[in-house]
Amino acid sequence: MLKTKTLNRAGFTMMELLVVMSILAILAGGLVAGYGKAQKAAWTSRSQSLVAQTVTAWNAYLLRNQTWPTTLKDVMDPTMCKIIAGGNGGQRFMDLAYEGLNLATTSKDSAEIKYGLLDAWGQNKAKRGESFSPEEYQIQIRFDKNYDGVVDSSEGSPDGEVRASVIAWSWGHAEGRTGFTRDVNDYVKLKTKSWVSSR
């Protein structure tokens, strides 16, 4: 009678371990790529919301005061934030806050006073304490300064004539405003969804 040997395997072979590790690496790569896309989509959505709120707030300002403030700038810098948030006892048209700090009620060290109204990419850099140029991430705005119902190139419209009292946009991504194809694509997406006319 022949005796057969039975092998008692207590673990996995090297080949089995390599297969499992390669499958896990592929899954992890997919998760990382998916996370980056989800983060960009969230930041884009946040920026679109800020742009729409900015347009709504400035339209409300015009409706209430029947004129623009004497200090008009093309970006939501600290001065413009203070006007629209009701700083110095004025009417509040927009509640500006980063991490629960409101511009109208907090100290001069709040994020809005330091940087102005930043899009989602700029807010992320500010929260992480990175060095950056706030001008590249501030919400851009242009006003119908002659009250004819059209913001045109003489008033700073980057897209010819736009029938609106105020237009606003975010440049759309972390690399800044110029020299990247994605700038144009993101700018057009944000602009077309966020320019609102008050007429």
SSE order and pairing:
Layout: H1 14-65, H2 78-84, E1 97-98, E2 101-102, H3 111-115, H4 120-128, E3 140-143, E4 166-169, H5 181-194
Antiparallel strand pairs: 1-2, 3-4
Which features would summarize this protein structure in a list?
4 strands, 44% helix, two-stranded antiparallel sheet, rod-shaped, 199 residues, 5 helices, two-stranded antiparallel ribbon
Poorly predicted runs are: 98-109, 174-199
Using the alpha-carbon principal axes, give the shape. rod-shaped
DSSP helical segment count: 5
Report the major sheet: 2 strands, antiparallel
Q: Roughly what percent helix?
A: 40-55%
Taking strands numbered 1, 2, ... along the chain, how are they ordered across the largest sheet?
1-2
What's the helix-strand series?
Answer: HHEEHHEEH
Strand content: 5-15%
> What do the pLDDT scores average to?
76
Distance, first to last CA: 100 Å
Integer tally of domains: 1
CA gyration radius, whole angstroms = 26 Å
Q: Structural class, from secondary structure content?
A: mainly alpha
